[in-house]
Amino acid sequence: MKVVSLFIALWGILSPFSSAYTDESGQVIITDAWVREAPPGAPVMGGYLTMKNIHDEDVVITGSKSSMFKDVEIHKTKIVDGIARMAHQTQLHLQSGSSMKFEPGGLHLMMMMPNGAINKGDIIDITLQLETGEEVQFQAPVQRDIFD
Amino acid sequence: MSDMERQDDSPKITKRNIAIFLAISTVGLTFGYISSRMVASYKENKISSVEGLLWPGKKINRFNLNSTDGTEFTQDNFLGKWSFLFFGFMTCPDTCPTTLKVMATAQNEIRKSELGSNMQVIYASVDPERDSIEAMKPYVEYFDPTFKGITGSLNALNVLTNQLGVLHIRNEPNEFGYYDVEHSASIIVVDPDGRRVGILSTPHTPSNIANRFQEIRKHVESQS
Predict the structure, then answer these.
(1) What is the value of ipTM here, to two decimals?
(2) What are the start and end residues of each CATH 3.40.30.10 domain in chain B?
(3) Span B53-223 CATH architecture
(4) Which pLDDT tens digit goes with each residue over B16-64?
(5) Which domain holds residue A43?
(6) Of B194, B186, B209, B159, the residue nearest B58 (C-alpha)
(7) SS3 B82
(8) Rounded Cα–Cα distance for residues B187 and B100 (Å)
C-alpha cells in the first residue's frame, strides 16, 4: 500500500492537469476535484470530485471541512416528483474497489460562508473525514465549469 | 401488554407476515418494472406525443413581481415572446447554477435556429428574504447577460406559483442559519399569448431543452 501511495503522490505532483490525493494509509484516492466559482452574490459554492476505495475493506465518509469555509457538508441533490431538495449525507459508504462521483445534479460538497473572496483559479484545501478518524486532504481548483 | 412490549417480540413467520411481505414485494417489483420501462422508453425516445406539452395552454392570470430590469414584471411581460421560466434561490450551490448554465447554452442553440428568435429566460427566486432584486441582477447576468431575474414577497410569488403548480418550501435552518428551499426543478414554457404550454422536467441538457421546446412550439403554432 505504501508503494501505491508513493506512486499516487508522485503522479499527483507530476501530472499537470489531473491531481490525485490519498489518505495516510492509501485507502481512498481523490481525483478530478474542482469547485464551482460562485456567481456574484452567492454565499455558497459546490465542490465536485471522484473518489475510489482501493482498500479491501469498505470505507465510510462521515464529513468534510475546509479551512477556507466556515462549514462544508456533503449533500446530495434529489429530485422527487419534480421537486429538488438537498439531503445531508453523514454516512457515505464507499465499498471496497468501488468509485463514487460527486457531480453537478448529484452528490456535492456544500461549501458555506467562505472566509474571504474566492476567485476562479484559486486553489481550495479540502479534507474528507473517515469513520476511522483518518482524513483525506486534497486540493481543488476554482473553475467556472467542469472543463475550464 | 403494552405497545412497547409487543415491539420487543422477535418477528415470527406467520401467514399475516408472509402476506405483508408478498404485498410489499409486489408493490416494489411493479414500481421497479414501471420505472425501468419509463427510463427505457425515455432513452429510446419512443414517446409519440410531444414531450412536456401542456395543451390546451393555460392563460396566466394577473400577478405582480419585480424584475432585475428595475421594472415590474407581470403577466403582460410574457406577451409577444416565448418565455422559459424557472425557480430557484441564490444560496443553492448545485441545482440552480447547473440549470442556469444549461439554460444559457440551450438559449444559444435555440437562437441559432429560425424558430429561435424572440425568446426570454426568466429566473424567479423563491427565497425573497435572502435574495434582493438588486443582488439577483449580477447573479443572473453572470450566466447570460440577457437573463432576467424576478422575485417579490412570498404572497406575490405564490400568486404566480399557485397558477403554475410550482411548489417551494423553506426548510429549517442549520446551526449556521443556512436553509434549503425545496422547489420545482422543471422549466415552464410560456407562449407569446401568455399561456403556460409546456413543462420541461429534469434531467436538463442544452439539446433536450432545445428539442423539446421546438416540438412544443411547433404544436402550439399549428393549433393557432
Answers:
(1) 0.83
(2) 53-223
(3) 3-Layer(aba) Sandwich (3.40)
(4) 777 776 777 777 676 666 666 555 555 444 345 899 999 999 999 999 9
(5) 2-142
(6) B194
(7) strand
(8) 10
Q: What is the pTM (predicted TM-score) of this model?
A: 0.80
Q: Give the C-alpha separation, B155 to A79, whole Å.
A: 25
Give the three cell numbers for residue A73. 457538508
* CB atoms A39 and B90 under 8 Å: yes
Q: Residue A14's domain is classified under what CATH number?
A: 2.60.40.1890
Domain membership flag for residue A148: no
Touching check for A83 and chain B: CB below 8 Å?
Answer: yes
The model's pLDDT over B85-138, given as tens digits with 9 standing for 90+, comes to: 999 999 999 999 999 999 999 999 999 886 666 899 999 999 999 999 999 999
Specify if A147 maps to a domain.
no
Residue A54 belongs to some domain of the structure: yes
Nine-digit cell string for A72: 462544508
- β-bridge pairing B119-125 and B82-88: parallel
Q: Which residue of A86, A88, A118 is the best one to mutate when testing the B interface, meaning the one whose CB has the most B CBs within 10 A?
A: A86
**Number of structural domains in chain A:** 1
Nearest by CB to A104, which of B94, B139, B174?
B94
d(CA B152, CA B154): 6
Q: Is residue A66 part of a domain?
A: yes
